[in-house]
Amino acid sequence: MANSLLEREAILTAVARHGASARDGRGRWLLLRGGPGMGLTSCVEGALRQERATGGIRVRHARSVPQEAEYPFGVLRQLFPEEDAALPFTDGPPAGSRQPLFHRLTTRLAGGPPVLLAVEDLQHTDEASWRWLGYLTRRLGRLPVLLLLTSAPSFDTGELFRATGQETTLPPLSDPAVEQLAAVHGHGRTTARLCAEASAGNPRLLHALLADLPAQGVPRTLDELVDTRYRDAVAQLLDSDPAPARRATALALALCAAAEEASPSGTPPLMHPDGEAVPLPPDGEVPLLPPDGGTPLLPAGIAGADPAFLAGVTGLTRERQRGVLRAMPRLARLLSHPLPREAVLASARDGELAPLRLRAARQLYEGGAPAPAVAAHLVGLPEITEEWMTRILEEAAELELGQGRPERAVPLLRSASTGPLTEGRRTALACRLASLELFSSAVASTRRLHRELQLTNGPQRLWVASALCGALVAQGCIGPAMRVLKEATDPYEDSRLTRTTRVVAAAIGVHDPEELPRSLIALRTRPEDSPASAAAPEHSPDAPSESAEALADSLVALYEAGSGEVSAHESTARVLDLLADPLHPRLRTSLFSVSACLLQWADHPADARDLARRALPHPPALPDLTDFGQQQLILARGKASLSTGRFQQVIDENEPILRACADQGIQLPHVVAALAIAHGELDQGDTAQRLLSESAAWEFNGSWSWDELLYVRGRLHSFDGRWEQALDDYLACGARKRKRGFESPIAQPWRSGAAQALTALGRPVEAVRFADEELRHARAWGTPRVIGRALHLRAVAIGGRLGLETLDEAVALLRSAPAPVELTEALLDLGRARIAAGHGRKGREALREAHRLAQRPSAELPRGPLAERTGAHRPDSGEGETDTTEPDGGKPDGGDADGRVGTAGDPSGRVGTAGDPSLPRLFRAAGHALALAGARGVGRAPVTDAASPLTDAEQRIVDLAVRGLTNHQIGESLHLARRTVETHLTHAYRKLGISRRTQLAARLRSGEPGGPWSGEV
């Protein structure tokens, strides 16, 4: 094909020149060198067509093949078929007696017309024919013969007489030529660049790749090609070289380059002596080894070729390896691209790569290379046979996890799990691997743990069962999780181990309201000392009874706090005592999670976040969802941030978790709830609703995490003025909590939400009943946040002078709590109430304070009692000091370095940025309320009489309109004419600064001048 001869014009010109000379009786020879796929055959065919078209010359063509290299005179038999009878089929006479035959053939050529003799693949020519071709070149000067030859680049052509001919090497196609061919196939420059790199200018590879390219997009792997022609062409290229050493070298180079790409954090597996890679010019032909044998040259994609290292991989001697590298100049450029590297490795035969991988890994390990560089070779082995291999794979996996790349860590751990392991180490590895697989396939993770549970005996069985339960809880399967732990308890006679198992089961039992009473009985019942338990070591790692009792006590404290039996002060004291003792590492996160929840409820968010920081992996590593303690710590950490107005921090910490769990069957309602309310508070309602919609397909169960989602859904409905829907969700949340016996408002203050919704729906009597009940439970807990919040919503429900006084009390209490959202909301209602009561100046002062607080809620989180008690030492002791910086030099929890505050780990407690409000929803509401109140220095609302409150009639009609009633239905309900309803709505629209009915709910939410404060005070 014509395209195959692109940039081969110089070859055809040389053939034409030598052909003209042969026609004049002055013969010449021309040797074309080139590797497989470089177009030697196409050049010969083009030359033959050209000379036939010119005329005046006969053409004879022969091709050597390796299968006939031992057949004497095989090539001559093709060139001179008429001499077939005269050419012997045996090894032939000795070299000296061949001269008459050679002379006769040459004389025949001299006496005939001009002839073009073409012989391809000299490296496969039989010895007798090769001797005759050399004989011919020494006599060509007086013969009408053009001898056109081709050979491999490394073939020794010393037999040819240099004075009568020349040789040339076919260069690879240039990038402009590749771009031209790609354009003919309809591809642009980006694809053309891929073609240039993935073919290295080799015409055969180029045409195969062009035939395999998809119509759209640039492929990055072989699987993205439409066919296997390119893969097959690379395999043919590799198979065409009969030398095993060259094939092994090509595979080793591809293997090491692929391993380097797979371990970017490690030292390149092929290193220059000076540590630097020398890039190969895109179109040049730079040898792997320079003529002086100095520093090798390879493209940056391969990083360098140390012959000593390669020799260790291939099993060749160093000198032999250097010779092989010199003989393979163009392979370097080809293997600098991942597509041909993948094709080279795909062409490997069974069992061909494993020895190369093993030798490469061993060399790197013994040379002190980083674990990722060694593991990149080990992970491809069919079997891990030595202990050091397992250790390196685990070390590399942990490094990948630390960089937030679990998808790279999983295959490393899978490979490590096939190695020689003790039972305890195998179990630990299986649990670790299952925790990572949970993010890619919850089914695979669960099956792995089920299998390990069947293989494990003794105390380790408890920890496998615990991990399996965590995985099942993460998938919403509470019942199966409880059954697993019950079955795991049965085989043990050791009372301490049985007690530990029951405590762990009770920790999961809080998810199931049916199981909770039995769990509480188990937690509150101390086991009698048995002979078996007395014989156990006091701090046996396999029978962590002391830590189990601490966990049991903390779970009892958690339930008693939720049921309203104890105060915040009592709960905090119990937590501090429990955390003062050494903790068994297996139960550490569970105890930390319960303690963090209690501390967050007790208005100690800094302590709660500190416990979460110690127990959860440092970002970007993901938490272990097979550990239900870490599951609950995620909630405690998020609630601590939400309570202090750090909404962007919640998003930064939880979005990666939710993203990793997408479409894997994992249900994390508490994570969705935290993200949804954070987006809602940031005035990103569409995002919040999208998150809730995506979780709508999940099946509700008895887990406490669904309580949180219901409460948040109610809050978001209230933000948009959908009071009926908000009330339904608040009541549903309350019903679930009451079934569990959790009456306290410390976790989800659903009664306050219901009171707010009932007030907005015009049902104040019911609202006051809920508010009073909330206040009673809040006073029992005793923290300023819950009492202040309950007082605030009670004040809204009762209205009037008593409501105003109650609001003053609520604001005073909330000022002493780390509760910027609750304080801002209370200040907004206080300002409106004062204005409605005729105290405009004081009302505007409260609104301005709310406006300022929403822009910058707090300066610093108060130091908690846990930090005060432990000082510089962590509560679990033995872990060193609690520093204010992380190992990477950053702040705890990964604070940003760009000046943003309020993101993960800002120890100062600041929130927001210099330009943006930290509480956007409340900032907007406060600004609008100030505008309605006629305050200076804020934007005015687009109304003509905004300062005028709604009349009672207007308020009643607006309330019904917000509930979705039509004008006709409102008229029937209030016994008014439809015209009267429309008139009142028109006046209300003007006062509220809106033009459509759909804007009513949002405007009333952001700052209505009417409501409970529009009547007499």
TrEMBL record:
InterPro entries: AAA_16, Sig_transdc_resp-reg_C-effctor, TPR-like_helical_dom_sf, Tscrpt_reg_LuxR_C, WH-like_DNA-bd_sf. GO terms for biological process: regulation of DNA-templated transcription. Pfam families: AAA_16, GerE. Residues 943-1008 form the HTH luxR-type domain. It comes from the Bacteria. Residues 526-547, 851-917 are annotated as: Disordered. GO terms for cellular component: cytoplasm. Residues 888-899 have a biased composition (Basic and acidic residues). Keywords: ATP-binding, Nucleotide-binding. GO terms for molecular function: adenylate cyclase activity; ATP binding; DNA binding. PANTHER family: TESTICULAR SOLUBLE ADENYLYL CYCLASE, TRANSCRIPTIONAL ACTIVATOR DOMAIN. This is Helix-turn-helix transcriptional regulator. It comes from Streptomyces jumonjinensis.
